[in-house]
Write a structure and sequence with these properties.
It contains eight helices and eleven strands. It is of the alpha/beta class and 238 residues long. The protein has two domains: 129 residues, Rossmann fold (3-Layer(aba) Sandwich), CATH 3.40.50.720; 101 residues, Dihydrodipicolinate Reductase, domain 2 (2-Layer Sandwich). The strands form two sheets. It has a six-stranded parallel beta sheet with strand order 2-1-3-4-5-11, sandwiched between helices. Strands 7-8-6-9-10 form a five-stranded mixed beta sheet, with helices on one face. Helix 1 packs across helix 7 and helix 5 packs parallel to helix 6. The chain starts with a strand and ends with a helix. 37% of the residues are buried.
Amino acid sequence: MKIALIGYGKMGKTIERIALERGHEIVSIIDIDNREDFESEAFKSADVAIEFTIPSMAYANYMKCFAADVPVVSGTTGWLNQMPEVKAMCAEEGKTFFYASNFSLGVNIFFALNKYLAKIMNNFPAYDVYITETHHIHKLDAPSGTAITLAEDLMGEVERKKRWVLGAEKKPDDLVITSFREGEVPGRHDIVYDSPVDTIRIEHDAKNRDGLALGAVIAAEFTAGKKGFLSMHDLFSF
């Protein structure tokens, strides 16, 4: 499979290594200094583009890919207010877009565990619940996209929580997310249910970026040749 990489930081380089190990060809690498390569024949020849950049550039990158008729797999977070436009282009114009807030298989198992536990804890109002997430100091958005996904899934089951907030609780029905930025931490997420008598905690702690990169490459393999909006639910059927 021919892959284009959009974003060539630590994550992009890890994706490149894993894609090559799996027998794929990298036909184009686009970073901040060569955005004109979106117009190149090499980029247009890609079966799929994998995009990990920054929130302020993500939507423009998707539009460039759509213009070149190259399917996109993206893990960039912090831009989701523009998701309706992307989904509309997939539905109405036949574009292809695979999005996940986190491509790690372990994190997606964690998502499923979070929803299952939340369904149980809906029946036990003595437990308050909050989320903490820790990432490296280079991560620009807070809370993380993974934390937002965890919060939204949790609120879908726990009726006493109506909205997530970053930082201090404002109302009893707020779900508090606390974000930390430390060193080179790849990503750690905790969901904590706390009562006067005990605490229940589930945690996912990424050891490196390889799990994310492998998931992104597997998603690219899945996406090539398909149309429409896709997600990890389509890939793993959790």
